[in-house]
């Protein structure tokens, strides 16, 4: 059914105005100061008076099907896409995460099949690179032709997913040839391994020692490393989930030298801090992710960097593991923090937290909010139909009620995990109506759409 959205305050990356909007055949068809409902008798009328109309939000960094640290992430596309949509995210970019012995093309088909069979939101992928032998390199070329225009490497996770310098160089060289961007988890894997061993050796085994095992400088070294390789190869790079000033400044310095680099942070760093991982009785395990949550003193820098455009995007790094049965694989005395599956579930909460802690407090304005949660990701990753409100763009919209107040809880979330890292946190505002290509998929905290509505977004190389 077509939609007529009346009286909404339309907010884009650059604009802020009140207008009516008519959506038909999956796209935005008209935006006018007033549209007579009688001129569009086929449309459902949605009164957006007092509400914002944002472009659908894009999460550039999620893990859904994720074999990792001896277990599997808890969500599938069914639960994750419902959670995403209720939270205002209409497109998610998942990492394809093959193991060392897997064929990249097989992994691509596996991840694609899982998403296509049930995703309710639109989706695309970053192709994970863990090896660069000639057979794998040819498959990466073919995967780019299939519409995946970004790679992902880990400089962390030694002996598991982490790549060697040779692999990093070869990946960036191929990316430069193909015009695709390389996203990277930046931590020096050897420094992490050495610090972990030192801490465990003296009995420092609880989740509170996860952060000391990978301090800020270890992340800064990872970012520096990526930038050096980008400078030498000319590849375009994107540092995922940066958590602190020291690390971000390494990327900024590289950009000043002419390196084509973009910087992401993720919502846990803006809202949580390392004291959460220090909670007693192993509760801190709920907050173990990598890079780790940092000192609260980092947060003003992150907000300022968002406002200044130094950080381009806010993702989630949604990586959901249960507290009972998964996080507790790392519980002392039998085990230690190294065995806690890394990650924090957050795909459902990103927009509400960013609005509550960013816009409602005045730390960022509405246009910055749209830029860093939607438009910049569309631009960086070649999602030409997404992240904007304009005639001809996909009718992916988030009609947002700024007057709603509520509380986050695992009791009500649609993610599959048995806990929320944001339990009890108040939120101001939430999505009232969420559409994907003109179909209403969520209303006021309820999923109302159809599983399988989500489409794979074929992307052309743009770098
Ligand atoms: O702790 C995290 N970040 N887990 C997910 C995997 C990754 O590093 O992105
Ligand atoms: Zn990572
Ligand atoms: Zn990640």
Strand-helix topology:
Layout lengths: L1 E10 L4 E9 L2 E6 L10 E5 L4 E4 L1 E6 L4 E2 L2 E2 L4 H10 L2 E8 L7 H15 L3 E7 L5 H12 L4 E5 L10 H14 L2 E5 L3 H13 L8 H4 L2 H18 L3 E3 L5 H12 L4 E6 H5 L27 H9 L5 E3 L34 H10 L6 H15 L16 E11 L18 E11 L2 E5 L2 E2 L16
Parallel strand pairs: 1-4, 1-5, 6-9, 9-10, 10-11, 11-12, 12-13, 13-14, 14-15
Antiparallel strand pairs: 1-2, 2-3, 5-16, 7-8, 16-17, 17-18, 18-19
Helix pairs in contact: 4-7, 7-8
The structure holds N-(aminocarbonyl)-beta-alanine and zinc ion (ZN) (2 copies).
Describe the protein.
With 463 residues, the chain is of the alpha/beta class. The protein folds into 2 domains: 2-54 and 393-417 and 426-447, Urease, subunit C, domain 1 (Roll), CATH 2.30.40.10; 57-377, TIM Barrel. Helix content is 30%, strand content 24%. It is built from 12 helices and 19 strands. Helix 3 links the parallel strand 10 and strand 11 (150-154). Helix 4 (165-178) crosses helix 7 (216-233). The radius of gyration is 21 Å and the shape is globular. The model has no long low-confidence stretch (mean pLDDT 98).
């Amino acid at each position: 059914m077509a939609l007529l959205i009346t009286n909404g305050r339309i907010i884009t990356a650059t604009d802020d105005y009140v207008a009516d909007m008519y959506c038909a055949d999956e796209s935005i068809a008209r935006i006018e100061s007033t549209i007579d409902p009688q001129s569009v008798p086929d449309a459902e009328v949605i009164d957006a008076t007092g509400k914002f109309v944002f472009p659908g939000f894009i999460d550039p960094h999620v893990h859904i099907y994720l074999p990792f640290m001896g277990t599997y992430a808890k969500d599938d596309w069914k639960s994750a896409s419902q959670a995403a949509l209720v939270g205002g995210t209409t497109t998610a970019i998942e990492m394809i995460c093959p193991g060392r012995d897997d064929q990249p093309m097989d992994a691509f088909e596996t991840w694609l099949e899982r998403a296509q069979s049930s995703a309710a939101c639109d989706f695309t992928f970053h192709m994970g690179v863990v090896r660069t032998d000639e057979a794998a390199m040819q498959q990466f070329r073919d995967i780019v032709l299939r519409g995946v225009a970004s790679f992902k490497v880990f400089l962390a996770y030694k002996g598991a997913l982490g790549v060697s310098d040779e692999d990093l160089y070869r990946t960036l060289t191929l990316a430069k040839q193909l015009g695709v961007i390389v996203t990277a988890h930046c931590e020096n894997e050897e420094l992490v391994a050495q610090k972990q061993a030192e801490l465990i050796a003296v009995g420092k085994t609880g989740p509170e020692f996860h952060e000391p095992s990978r301090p800020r400088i270890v992340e800064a070294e990872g970012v520096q490393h990526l930038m050096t390789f980008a400078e030498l190869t000319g590849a375009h790079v994107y540092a995922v989930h940066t958590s602190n000033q020291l690390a971000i400044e390494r990327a900024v310095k590289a950009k000043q030298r002419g390196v084509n680099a973009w910087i992401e942070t993720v919502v846990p760093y803006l809202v949580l801090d390392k004291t959460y991982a220090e909670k007693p009785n192993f509760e801190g395990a709920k907050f173990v992710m990598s890079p780790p949550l940092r000192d609260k003193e980092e947060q003003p820098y992150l907000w300022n960097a968002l406002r200044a455009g130094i950080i381009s995007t806010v993702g989630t790094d949604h990586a959901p593991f249960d507290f009972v049965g998964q996080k507790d694989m790392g519980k002392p005395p039998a085990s230690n923090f190294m065995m806690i599956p890394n990650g924090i579930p957050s795909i459902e909460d990103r927009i509400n937290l960013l609005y509550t802690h960013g816009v409602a407090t005045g730390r960022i304005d509405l246009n910055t909010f749209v830029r860093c949660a939607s438009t910049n990701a569309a631009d960086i990753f070649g999602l030409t139909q997404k992240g904007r409100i304009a005639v001809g763009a996909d009718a992916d919209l988030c009609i947002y009620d700024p007057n709603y107040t509520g509380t986050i809880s695992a009791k009500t979330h649609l993610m599959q995990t048995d806990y929320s890292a944001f339990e009890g946190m108040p939120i101001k505002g939430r999505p009232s109506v969420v559409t994907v290509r003109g179909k209403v998929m969520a209303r006021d905290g309820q999923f109302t759409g159809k599983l399988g509505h989500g489409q794979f977004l074929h992307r052309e190389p743009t770098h």
